Amino acid sequence: MKRTARRFLWLAAPLALAAPVLAAVAQNGSPPGAPPGGNPLELKYSTPNAAHGAQLSASVCQSCHGPGGVSTNPEVPRLAGQVPGYVRFQLAAFRAKLRPSPVMQRVAASLTDQDMADLAAYFSAQAIGPAWNTTDAALRARGEALFMGGDPARGAIACAICHGASGRGEDHLGVASITNQSPTYALAVLHEYKNTPSFGGIPQPEAMRIVVKPLGEDDLRALVAYLSSMTR
Ligand code: HEC
Ligand code: HEC
């Protein structure tokens, strides 16, 4: 067993700490309530139909997100293996124009609640894509240490506490999968968490904003080098 693996063996306990840490973070951040007039992120749908999701993906999403949601463009997020709740909430947030992105707001405008659930069911069942290349081994190693252990002296929380040591997230807690996520996209979204307020209505609107607060640019780059190549 590799030394790092043994050192972080306690994390193999399946996300036992995620719920209490999320609860503490939520209290700390006084999350915004649902927007006035009801929560536009609450979707109404019946049993998701992944086969219909596959058809929609092939005709609408694949040109940007890649076949099966395995994007090969570092700026476009991978959707393969993403937890379904996260995909549904993000699509609803684009449609409600709560999450910025002219491209995705246009795409989501043409999707029904049922389409969103079908797409989420399809993408969550696809195998995550291969690792991205990282040329800087030292940077990646720093990212791995932060990901697994955090840096308590600086108040940096280990990513693995919520995302899991495998980075595959936790659907019922609203935690996204980030394993082998596209690197340029991941860095952009971490900057967004640092620089823009959250939108209400998702399960954990403040979690990532609190997590990134003590982290500097070097930390974010190291973390992205690791998370974009987790399963190599
Ligand atoms: C023209 C290119 C394009 C098309 C077509 C497209 N997307 Fe996207 N999508 C993007 C880009 C770029 C982003 C990143 C947006 C941002 O955060 O700035 C994105 C983000 C997303 C996200 C958020 C992912 C995350 O990890 O937070 C989801 C979910 C998503 N797209 C789903 C879809 C689905 C489903 C379709 C098809 C119905 C689709 N997209 C079609 C370009 C596209
Ligand atoms: C307290 C729990 C928690 C911790 C700790 C945590 N995350 Fe997250 N993370 C979440 C939640 C919840 C989401 C999705 C919610 C959202 O969109 O704000 C998320 C989303 C993300 C995303 C966006 C995924 C996407 O597809 O857009 C990235 C990247 C990410 N986290 C990276 C990290 C990194 C790196 C760390 C460690 C420095 C970390 N997270 C620590 C809870 C956590």
From TrEMBL:
It is found in: Periplasm. Residues 1-23 form the signal peptide. The keyword Electron transport applies. Keywords: Electron transport, Heme, Iron, Metal-binding, Periplasm, Signal, Transport. Coiled coil: none annotated. Residues 48-127, 138-231 form the Cytochrome c domain. Its main location: periplasm. InterPro entries: Cyt_c-like_dom, Cyt_c-like_dom_sf, Cytochrome_c4-like, Cytochrome_c_Oxidase_Subunit. The keyword Iron applies. PANTHER family: CBB3-TYPE CYTOCHROME C OXIDASE SUBUNIT FIXP, CYTOCHROME C4. This is Cytochrome c553.
